[in-house]
């Protein structure tokens, strides 16, 4: 992105950590890592708050 002149674009990176991850059902592993729907929504909310962006209303995961 920097080569394209987009060095000031803020990006939230989510992914599997570079360490051993316990084995199990996909849904359970994603939940533990915070990569299920609820975990991703919470990560986005926290990141937006850290950027000084506050959400109003009932925005969140309903599934």
Describe, in plain words, how this protein is organized in 3D:
The chain has about 60 residues and is mainly α. The chain has a domain at about 20-55. Helices cover about 35% and strands about 0% of the residues. It has two helices and no strands. It has helices at about 25-35, 35-50. The N and C termini lie far apart (about 35 Å). About 0% of the residues are buried. The model has no long low-confidence stretch (mean pLDDT about 85).
Write the topology of this structure.
Elements: H1 26-33, H2 37-50
Work out the strand percent.
Answer: under 5%
Mean residue pLDDT = 85
Residue runs with pLDDT of under 50 for 5 or more positions:
none
* Count of alpha and pi helical runs: 2
Beta strand count? 0
Multimeric state of these chains? Answer: single chain
Main sheet overview = none
Judging from the principal axes of the Cα atoms, what is the shape?
flat
Report Rg: 15 Å
N-end to C-end Cα span = 33 Å
Instruction: Provide the helix percentage.
Output: 25-40%
The computed structural class is mainly alpha
In N-to-C order, the SSE pattern is: HH
